Amino acid sequence: MPTQQEQHSIQAWSLINRKYLGKGIRVKRFRKPSRCQIRNRVLLAVLMANDIKLSQLAEELGVSSRSVSAWVYEGRIPGKKNLDKVCQFLGYPHHILFNRSVTASSPIICQPASSRFMRRTLTRSPVDNKILTGLCMVHDLSVSDVSEWMHIHPGTFRKWLHQGTLPSPSFQDRAELFFRIPKFILFADCILHDS
Q: Is 194 exposed, middle or buried (0-12, 13-18, 19+ CB in 10 A)?
């Protein structure tokens, strides 16, 4: 006869098994870190917008997953050889992906309310501004909410994302103030595309 503690343990496992039995295992594409854990939000944004897992990037570059995690979550800057490899693979210069001022401060954005990124933003039409889209994904922000908080029409914000439109300097300043990342990084896709 099981003791009362063993019986309680059996019942707990029974409830856990009933909850998950027959539902399969769902593995998330990216773990959801707390915002204070991400030191290099730009690198994570580019990876999320391109649907590249940290382990995939590590495998592609021939480095350990721990190294790539350190780049994203601890803000470490890779050595010259790996820095060149990651920049070439992702198609951005090192001053965009590994900007020391951004990784050193890594400020948390001030969103007035909770929000949720909608996957349909990526599936409706191609995204030209990967960094800005990826930042919305990193912070789990909907396009409508961000445009409302920045006092910009949602259609205008969608143009920035999907068409890679470079906004006016005043709108760039608003985006820089909200995301707390320099505008030359936020709109690097537009600038690099034009040059």
A: exposed
Question: 31-51 burial string, b = 16+ CB within 10 Å, else e?
Answer: eeeeeeebbbbbbbbbbbbee
Q: Is the pTM of this model over 0.85?
A: no
| CB-based contact 141:178 (threshold 8 Å) | no
> Position 135: which residue type?
L
Tokens 């006016």, located at residue: 168
134: part of which helix (H) or strand (E)?
Answer: helix 130-138
Q: What are phi and psi of 115, to 5 degrees?
A: -150, 170
- Rounded Cα distance between 147 and 152, Å, is 5
Residue 100 has φ and ψ, to the nearest 5°, of -60, -35
Q: Which two tokens stand for residue 1?
A: 């006869």
Q: Could you report the per-residue pLDDT of 51-70, keeping only the tens digit for each?
A: 899 999 999 999 999 999 99
Q: Token pair of 181, please?
A: 């990342």
